[in-house]
Amino acid sequence: MAEHEHVRVAVVGSGFGGLGAAVRLRREGITDFVVLERAGSVGGTWRDNSYPGCACDVPSHLYSFSFAPNPDWPRTFSGQRHIRAYLEHVADTFGLRPHLRFDAEVKRMTWDAERLRWRIETGRGKLTADVVVSATGPLSDPKIPDIPGLDTFPGKVFHSARWDHDYDLAGKRVAMIGTGASAIQIVPSIQPVVGRLTLFQRTPAWVMPRVDRAIGPAERALHRAVPLTARLRRGLLWGIRELQVQAFTKHPEELGLVERLAQRNMARAIKDPALRAKLTPDYRIGCKRILLSNDYYPALARPNVDVVASGLAEVRGSTLVAADGSEAEVDAIVFGTGFHVTDMPIAERVVGADGRTLAETWQDGMQALRGASAAGFPNWMTIIGPNTGLGNSSMILMIESQLNYMADYLRQLDVLGGRAALDARPEAVRAWNDRVQERMKRTVWNTGGCTSWYLDAAGRNTTVWPGTTSEFRRATRRVDLMEYRVLRPPAGAPSDAEAAAEADTAKTGVTA
Q1: Pair 18, 383: CB distance under 8 Å
Q2: Compositional bias (Low complexity) spans (predicted)?
Q3: What is the pTM of this model?
């Protein structure tokens, strides 16, 4: 990376959001961009999460880009290895390699109001960009709770998203902290090899059967030979999930039948009434993400597994103490405690027009116009921003909708001509957020009686979209310039010609 390289667009992150943005930029005819990635390869969360049993809980043909169908998914629900390989394939197929900058973690992004551009400091040097597309994702920075005495634990400690493959769990006494989507995949994967497994469960999860199977050679060959069949399959998967949305967003009482199915699923594997009582949630199904597994409950019923129905409260040497006073001697601790979702660390590194960081602007809760633009941060967009998450479908659908919005945003800048920037009006951001939060009031995520990672520290749901994916696509089809302030360079700023010459100098290193 040149010391002061200038690009039209800087994309941050190379997971689904970042690679999707890069593909869309090329399809729009924009090649003056870079993708800044802090690691040494693409993949985002599917690179970082390599724990045993890691797989997606969304069907493969729906968890892929519509513009890059994969007829060769090996299973209806694909594992981490195949999803990561798919993203590498996307990078190669669409010619993204020349745009990738690995080991280029963003340290700081500062808006330059005079030149209407972002000044970016990375682990590989500095650059400037007219537009920043932040695609760091909400599931990128692991969260480990502050447990008294944890720093004195003599054994091995790691988070599920930073799995230590060099540490052999065979025969060890292992503590699994958490019962989320990662934990229910890890537990059955390591249970057969560890000496003893103690699961510290703060809140039990609702678990439904995982209807997974191998996709045979004939089925894959059909999808390759007749692409329409794969599109129909994807459309069917999408439609079923669209029909489910009303129960989550408007009529949570309709989820009672699903609860009974989940209870039957548990009863088939858990015969001990005391254990079944520990594992039965006291909140409405769907309030937290519904988890899918065929082997989680059977693993918990094995004789070398203990379930502690209380969160980890303290560590005393190699002894773990739960909030209810239960104790367990362990050799290793695995945290499946989620990520910094409502307090994304990237927000601390983005400095807007008024000199405040995005984290300071969002200290009372994340807000972004149509999930993309924050007031006071011109020409800065986020992919998978506030209130764009889903509780029952594929995030790739939401990402593609935001890519539509990004593409039109760049078109609007072209139409405006000259040096220009768009800054979301505070009143437009508030109006959008107020509508979202009003709709959120009757959703299962707000009324279901649970505490989840969808909620921020103040109890506001700043994570999930309270509607269908088709609704969101309509809302992000076009940029409404009435919702933005158009910024021009201030008096005395370098002219367009001088700015262009400065950009050329930055790229070539040659001065007149």
Answers
A1: yes
A2: 493-512
A3: 0.94
